[in-house]
Amino acid sequence: MTIGIESSTATNRRTLPDDGIQLSHFIGSKLSHNNSMSDEGEIPMPFLTLEEAYRRDHSLSIPSPKIKFHLRTYGCQMNVSDSDIVRSILLSNSNMEETEEEMEADVLLTNTCAIRENAETKIWHRLQVLRALDSKHPKRSQNGTTRRRIIGVLGCMAERVKEDLFRDGNADMVVGPDAYRDLPRLINMLSTADSSSPDHREKALNVQLSFDETYADVIPVRSNPEDISAFVSVMRGCNNMCSYCVVPWTRGRERSRELFSIVDEVKRLYEENNVKEIILLGQNVNSYHDKSPRALAVNPVATYETSNQGFTNMFRLRGGGGFYFSDLIEAVSDLSPELLVRFTSPHPKDYPAELLQLMAERHNVCKQLHMPAQSGSTLVLKRMRRGYTREAYMELIDTVRSTIPDVSISSDFISGFCGETEDDHRDTITLMEAIQFDQAYMFAYSMREKTHAHRKMVDDVPQETKLSRLNEVISTFREVVQVKNDRQEVGRLRVVLVEGRSRKSEDQLSGRTDQNKRILFPNESCQSQLSGDKAMVFLKAGDYAVVQVVEARGHTLRGRALWRTSLQSFTELNCFGSKELEANIVQQLG
Predict the structure, then answer these.
(1) pLDDT in tens, 63-81
(2) How many angstroms separate the CA atoms of 255 and 25, rounded?
(3) Could you tell me whether strands 323-324 and 556-565 are parallel, antiparallel, or unpaired per DSSP bridges?
(4) Which residue, among 168, 174, 167, has the nearest Cα to 151 in the 3D structure?
(5) CA separation for the pair 111, 71 (Å, rounded)
(6) Both ends of the chain: CA-CA distance in Å?
(7) Considering the entire predicted model, what is its pTM?
(8) Helix 325-333 to helix 259-272 angle, to the nearest 10 degrees?
């Protein structure tokens, strides 16, 4: 028996063009087949009701004794942030507690990724291992009886695969990324059900997508409250409809949190939790648009602009009043000159001049931009439905570098997309050589069900060709980044946020530069400041330090700490980009 969301309210149904993707792809096989997705960018959203017996407006408490849960996270930073939300929701119930030991748990939760086939393969394997361990070592209660653990799948794979995760008894509970508030109810139902027979275990499903869920009122509970960096989710979903991407089907339509709620969360993290770095998150983070009544009242007239005229939108309803991403960056960076601000993951189309100029002016907004190119071929970009040409992308890069001196740029690349020829691949190689990215995330194409490519294209590039091209892409990146870092980084002074000891050596400290480059340096004393009292101090996590780069190993740097600093005082040195000025400072230090 399956309990959860499995019915649709007729009064809320919308009729959309039928192109093969049905509402059942989102929420299960028992739903109407009249709702579908428009190939031109409309994303269907199921409007559902909970079972009458478990209406959401009736609060259900989880019975004592306390139920222990274990939560493991796979995938992107957004999943890490979502796990913090899940943890908060569960711990808000006094009868729930978290455990780090899987076999101590009553509930085993796995937050999943679905972006590539390999990511899902790992989850299938994990579920099989968990079920085998649970069968061999069932949980024993205080009265000596045994019961099977609840195995739950959360996140993007839960939203994409849905009830198929119940196959072969792999999972007992499947919950999509917009339904985490329902976790206590579902766990309650499963924990009170008879679990003695594996053939008659009840199952719970809620894969309801939402137009407006942002979890803005949930205060995340971080897995490590001592971390000096914190993720803050500012928007969810994606409207871009790239032909290879499953995210619109697993995360739904874009919706943004209210700006003021984000600022309040960041302020609390900085002032109460000693967080020094905020990473603003969203599937399409720089498309952020707060259209709440409060935002419209403050800013009723606003203009939406793409990066340049060579960029277009698949989603046609952008624009209007409210707050945009540049407003959010300005508000967050205003909180303190000592708070670092980063963001990910953006789309190249949403870097208007106003945002770039703001980043250039604010010393605490990191000088690093992620620009996912995906391909260097205009023909492939068109098939991918990326909304820009090679020429428009390169024009944007030129604008970025002329506006933000010393900026670092990272990118994503997919090798072997449908119809990619050797000439298309060569265009990608030449783009990488021309732009010289500072970091890159490179993958072979993996076709995902329900995407535009799955419905309309043929995955016609042989796997061995994909891997061969991917290897050349990776080799090109490594060669270029080594030469570039040798030329541009060695000898430079970089302000670094110290993250703590290196994972590989207690004798090394690790941190990131303003350009988001990993740097390692000896855990040795350095001056407490550049001038005045020059007492020697040891650096700790959360300190800012001026580190001189002495070596580049690929995209990782090595250096030596010179003195402890603040963001403000390092900015006032005004030596950015001048190796001569930096060399004079080092000489004065002796």
Answers:
(1) 467 899 999 999 999 999 9
(2) 21
(3) unpaired
(4) 174
(5) 7
(6) 75
(7) 0.86
(8) 30
